[in-house]
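Figure 2 data, in text form.
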Amino acid sequence: MARLAATDAPLGAHISAAGGVLNTPGRADDIGATAMQIFTKQANRWAEHEVDPAIATAFKAGIAASGVRFTNAHDSYLINLASPDPALREKSIASFAAELRRCHALGLDACVSHPGNFMDDRASGIARNADGITQALEQEVGDTRLLMELTAGQGTVIGSTFEEMAALLALIPAKLRKRVGVCLDTAHVFAAGYDLVSDCAGVFSQFDDSIGLDQLGLIHLNDSKAPLGSHKDRHELIGVGMIGEGAFGVIMTDPRLEGVPKLLETPKGDDMVTNDRAMLALLRGFRGAPTSRSA
């Protein structure tokens, strides 16, 4: 996935797929989005499905006719590739592979996935996680890039530090690694202990030193209800939470991040269109850009 120029960097939000994925391009246009994240299935259920070729064709046509230029899915919250339980891990690998298959069928640019919970031994869990990713990538070949999302570090979850994410990626075979990158969620890394308030630019320098900014495929822009280092994943509207507007101004204007797609996962409230449009206008305002999707 090639990086884009600053003026072309996609900016958008998670879009509801209620009623089917064919409804999502229009909903993205409703909020003026140029980037869009969706669920390809119900995120809290194991039930899987294949994408009907006619649906895939219509979805791609809808994207082409919309203002959306970057699309990604977020996989199921139930998947745990790091689990020491053989039955759960086997089920997770099958579900993860099915997610990649749907992403390929729909022609999505990326698929975001949380690392799993190790539950027993951290090193063993990281190894299992990498092995599960490897199995699924070998089984499902396509152009969708897998983006492993940094976590808040609650409980036994993997991937809350840049060093641990780098270690996970290093265990994926070199021949597959070009298909894998990282998604950074601002609320997650703040809760994990990275001080975006006092030194936002420095946090991204740490990311570059540990993982490499060339591996940063997507940024989730979320303020945090939880304080620094709390290890709690609690999203809030931009500027309302513990991070505040300042860090997001840095992210929107840092030349190192200008070509990285950015997506909101902030609370929708009772009026998702109005709330998302307001958040996108705020973010575009940080870089002095027009508030329309032409930015």
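Caption note: The longest helix spans residues 86-106.
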